[in-house]
Amino acid sequence: MNIRTIRIGVVGLGTVGAALVESLQANAGIIRADVGAEVVIARIAEKDATRRKSIHAPGTVLSLDWRDLVADRDIDIVVELMGGTSAARDLVLASLRAGKHVITANKALLANHWTEVLTEAHKAGRAVGFEASVMAGVPVIHVLQSGLSGHRISAISGILNGTSNFILTRIGENGVDRRQALEEARQKGFCEADPSLDLEGFDAAQKLAILGSLVLGRWLPPQDVHREGIGNLEKEDLLEARNSFGYVLKPLAILKRRATGVEARVQPTFLDKRSPLAEVSREFNALLIESDAAGPITLIGKGAGGAPAASGVLADIVEIARRIRHADSGASVPRLPRPGPVHVLPYDQLESRFFLRFTVCDRPGVLSKIFRCLSSERISIANSEIRNTPDGATGLVYAATYRTHAKAVRKALKTIDVQPALVKRKTLMVPIQE
Ligand code: HSE
After folding, report:
1. At 271, is the secondary structure helix, strand, or coil?
2. How far apart are CA 330 and CA 192, in angstroms?
3. Strand runs (DSSP E) across 240-283, as ranges?
4. Is the C-beta atom of 135 inside 6 A of ligand 1?
């Protein structure tokens, strides 16, 4: 087929959109050679006048309304970088119905409308590229979709949120508090527009939902992922865990097939400081994939920031452009999800070791009462440390349990935490990954 030019329409000139325009310009020669045709940004839609002015894109038509791109019959690929799930959903569905291929970095949209978007793409026979939606520039979607096609993946685990990892890394280093670390992450362009999505684990749960839906071949709703944020952990906890117990805290996302269902959770987790994931710091993300034939595979790279996210979009653009160039009708879309829900196991069934922090009152017998409550749930303590707070009237007791069920620990803490004569605040409970 004699196609000389492939036309892209980009909606949204935020951090990722602006970086994408730069990458497409900087790598124009490589892209032309890879695709065998010119790839140009024919139109950009952006409502914000300052953003429109800041962009240098000669030959590109600037619009205020994404509908102009959908209506433009010459546009082959629409890149959705506007964010949100309402207008973005309309744009993605309308573009597919108009016969355009779609690329999106929008994890919230995909995680929540997975079946709808894929069904529309299958109906239209058009591709949906979403490499940038998870782990930004790390090509995890391609690995799961193509590199490991035909494999049975038994588990995936890793770090899927760059902002939380950046903040935990920074507050584990001396001199930086949580607020400063968040401000640094914001300035570097890692955070969501609403950073609570990062801090409370919503962002990572959406990403795990996308990966889980791919791996399981069934839609995993993000609401079904057990989710905890990094808000309850303080700098002292991180330092104590590292110095006395040899643990490093990481915001982990885990999906595992079990005999009775699927374990799906996003939560801060302690790792042995010698484990490979413990070394993954700042905005870096990592994913360990365990499959039958290939054995364990680990991917590590930058999971947040304009340029890394634009890299994922760029890879999708080139792949889809190649297919257009070669008139390849096999559009790149994940298979349609099988109907029916994923059976996600309740968190209480998790079997793990746990790290506990009790804020205890200065009274005789407090420790023995706490340990009795634990032992009555058959929880055995492997290691513990006691520290005084500067006021001297409160003690911090840190304990690592042997393997037990989350249900047993929660039950014991329910008894302990309601006794003001024992503890001064809610006990911290964090799993330890083995
Ligand atoms: N806010 C996200 C993160 C950006 O910190 O990982 C990349 O998805």
Report:
1. strand
2. 34
3. 247-258, 261-272
4. no
Cβ–ligand 1 distance for 161 under 6 Å, the answer: yes
Q: Ligand 1: which residue has its CA nearest to atom 7?
A: 304
Tell me what percent of the residues of the chain surpass a pLDDT of 90: 88
What's the gap in Å between 419 CA and the centre of ligand 1? 39
pLDDT by residue (tens digit) across 358-396? Answer: 999 988 999 999 999 999 999 999 999 999 877 777 899
CA atoms of 314 and 31, how far apart (whole Å): 9
Does the C-beta of 319 come closer than 6 Å to ligand 1?
no
Q: How far is the CA of 376 from the centre of ligand 1 (A)?
A: 42
Taking residue 345's Cβ as centre, other Cβ atoms within 10 Å add up to 16
Handedness of CA 228, 230, 231, 232 (dihedral sign): positive
Task: Note the pLDDT tens digit of each residue in 4-30.
Answer: 899 999 999 999 999 999 999 999 999
The CA 204 to ligand 1 mean position distance, Å, reads 8
Beta bridge partners of residue 289, listed in sequence order: 156, 297
Atom of ligand 1 nearest to the CA of 191: 1
- In the chain, the amino acid numbered 186 is R
What value does the CA radius of gyration of the chain take, rounded to a whole number of Å?
A: 24
CA distance 60 to 104: 20
Contacts of 57 by beta carbon, 8 Å cutoff, 6+ apart:
21, 25, 41, 44
**Could you write out the DSSP letters of every residue in 343-374?**
-BPPGGG-EEEEEEEEEEES-TTHHHHHHHHH
Interatomic CA distance for residues 367 and 397, integer angstroms:
9
